[in-house]
């Protein structure tokens, strides 16, 4: 089968090509699939997309007209896909049900540690031969409280690391995870978690019920010196409300690997362009904000799992199989 993979990173391309070699013909493009790039998919029965693809009704209709019948997204999240319309069009849609939770959990901790110990500021100073400690005073995580919102595989991995630091563990989820409870986690209401957490991390999917989960009210509940980490989905946080909170000095630090308007920005070189997103531009001015470009998942271990799952999705489509990665089965 001919497969088009879009939004492919340079490090990801050889892994995809090696996995598909001798099985299916795959064409890898760095370009993200949108209405503007839709003609590139013409003639491909299977299209593999990145999480930043815009798969709304018009794009899906264009894909079907071009002959596409399978969308296999190389991510766990799929909020960018209009599933109801895809089903009406008779398309098959699959995702990566799971990959290394450690990649994201460890990166969330990377952001937290870098913020708390002022690593970026310190590294910048020493490059200029400035070896003062002024403004670099951090805190121990040991003995403080970690608030984990979402205790699936990634949240559980984050919790295990927090336990290793000797932190008090608070959690929130629809259903408590026995594995986290065995590590000493106490499940509480969101109000209490926001009030008591010194380090708050988000690991829930983006749904209507979690959109802007962290807004003006929740931010006001946080401790003034607390850290907020988001490696899940950008729209879990109301970015405008976050800017206002930071401007008022009411939060210790923020680590973001995702941003609610990241599509068309993250994964691209925008260094020679004017930043037209005023909220993102403002966030980047705060010295206690650390933003990375959706790279938490980006380890060899995780990408190899994602590539293997993508190949399985294509094979399952051909064979008519339904798996835990199937969002819409083949008609």
Structural class category = alpha/beta
State the CATH architecture of the largest domain. 3-Layer(aba) Sandwich
Shape: globular
Largest sheet: 7 strands, parallel
CATH fold title of the largest domain: Rossmann fold
Instruction: Give the end-to-end Cα distance, rounded to a whole number of Å.
Output: 18 Å
Mean pLDDT: 96
CATH top level of the largest domain?
A: Alpha Beta
The CATH superfamily of the largest domain bears the name: NAD(P)-binding Rossmann-like Domain
Number of helices: 12
Total domains, how many?
A: 2
Domain D-isomer specific 2-hydroxyacid dehydrogenase NAD-binding: 110-296
Keywords: NAD, Oxidoreductase
Family: Belongs to the D-isomer specific 2-hydroxyacid dehydrogenase family.
Protein name: D-lactate dehydrogenase
Question: What does this entry look like structurally?
Answer:
The model has no long low-confidence stretch (mean pLDDT 96). The chain is globular. Helix 1 (13-20) runs parallel beside helix 12 and helix 4 packs across helix 6. Strand 1 (2-5), helix 1 and strand 2 form a beta-alpha-beta unit. The chain folds into two domains: 2-99 and 299-328, NAD(P)-binding Rossmann-like Domain (Rossmann fold, 3-Layer(aba) Sandwich); 101-291, NAD(P)-binding Rossmann-like Domain (Rossmann fold). The relative contact order is 0.14. The chain has twelve helices and 13 strands. By secondary structure, it is of the alpha/beta class. It has a seven-stranded parallel beta sheet with strand order 8-7-6-9-10-11-12, with helices on both faces. It has a six-stranded mixed beta sheet with strand order 2-1-3-4-5-13. GO terms for molecular function: D-lactate dehydrogenase (NAD+) activity; NAD binding. Residues 110-296 form the D-isomer specific 2-hydroxyacid dehydrogenase NAD-binding domain.
């Amino acid at each position: 089968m001919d497969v088009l993979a879009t939004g492919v990173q340079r490090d990801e391309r050889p892994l995809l090509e090696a996995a598909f070699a001798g099985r299916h013909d795959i064409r890898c493009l760095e370009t993200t699939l949108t209405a503007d790039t839709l003609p590139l998919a013409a003639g491909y029965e299977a299209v593999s997309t990145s999480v930043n693809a815009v798969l709304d009704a018009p794009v899906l209709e264009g894909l079907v007209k071009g002959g596409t019948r399978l969308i296999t997204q190389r991510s766990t999240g799929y909020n960018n896909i209009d599933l109801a319309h895809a089903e009406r069009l008779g398309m098959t849609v699959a995702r990566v049900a799971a990959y290394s939770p450690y990649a994201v959990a460890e990166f969330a901790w990377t952001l937290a540690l870098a913020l708390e110990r002022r690593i970026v500021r310190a590294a910048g100073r020493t490059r200029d031969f400035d070896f003062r400690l002024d403004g670099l005073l951090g805190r121990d995580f040991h003995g403080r409280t970690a608030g984990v919102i979402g205790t699936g595989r990634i949240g559980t991995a984050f919790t295990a690391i927090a336990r290793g630091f000797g932190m008090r563990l608070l959690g929130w989820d629809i259903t408590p995870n026995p594995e986290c409870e065995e590590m000493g986690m106490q499940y509480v209401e969101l109000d209490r978690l926001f009030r008591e957490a010194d380090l708050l991390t988000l690991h829930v999917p983006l749904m209507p019920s979690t959109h802007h989960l962290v807004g003006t009210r929740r931010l006001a509940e946080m401790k003034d010196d607390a850290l907020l980490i988001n490696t899940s989905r950008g729209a879990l946080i109301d970015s405008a409300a976050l800017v206002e909170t930071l401007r008022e000095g009411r939060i210790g630090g923020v680590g973001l690997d995702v941003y609610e308007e990241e599509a068309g920005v993250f994964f691209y070189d925008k260094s020679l362009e004017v930043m037209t997103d005023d909220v993102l531009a403002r966030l980047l001015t705060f010295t206690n904000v650390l933003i990375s470009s959706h790279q938490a998942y980006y380890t060899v271990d995780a990408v190899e799992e994602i590539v293997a799952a993508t190949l399985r999705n294509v094979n399952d489509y051909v064979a008519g199989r339904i798996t835990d990665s199937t969002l819409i089965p083949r008609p």
